[in-house]
Write a sequence for this structure.
């Protein structure tokens, strides 16, 4: 099984920046713990408990980011073909119910954002679109029912 994670260069850079920020913050949190510890009774010391909790979160997320970065494989947009949908493609589809066009940018699960346009390959819609070509139709079972799309256009995202 391939454990690599396909990401854009921009998102890999963001992961690295997030990691760097946490690495810089860690000594500050350790210093806050030491300061809070010097204030006496730790049972009722909110500063101490908050700093310990933050340190635990930082250490855990550093491990997660290191793992993601180590397994990252950059999507090379220069060598992509647009004959079928793969990660990194922008796809225009026609909704079978409304006949309105919708645009999706198919990305890895780690590149998916909070916008509706970015859709993870791990999502039901992303999984259904992978490998499809212009003219293909798909029906996708989602929690709110069945979605139907016709693929109108594929381009490099």
């Amino acid at each position: 099984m391939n454990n690599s994670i396909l990401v854009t260069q921009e998102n890999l850079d963001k992961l690295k920046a997030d990691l760097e920020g946490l690495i810089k913050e860690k000594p500050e949190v350790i210093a806050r713990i030491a300061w809070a510890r010097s204030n006496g009774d730790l049972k009722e010391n909110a500063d101490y408990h908050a700093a310990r909790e933050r340190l635990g979160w930082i250490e855990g997320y550093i491990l997660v980011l290191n793992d993601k970065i180590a397994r990252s494989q950059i999507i090379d947009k220069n060598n992509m073909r647009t004959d079928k949908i793969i990660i990194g493609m922008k796809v225009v589809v026609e909704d079978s119910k409304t006949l309105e066009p919708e645009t999706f940018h198919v990305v890895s699960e780690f590149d998916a954002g909070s916008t509706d346009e970015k859709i993870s390959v791990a999502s039901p819609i992303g999984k259904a679109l992978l490998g499809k070509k212009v003219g293909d139709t798909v029906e996708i079972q989602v929690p709110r029912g069945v979605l139907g799309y016709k693929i109108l256009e594929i381009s490099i995202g």
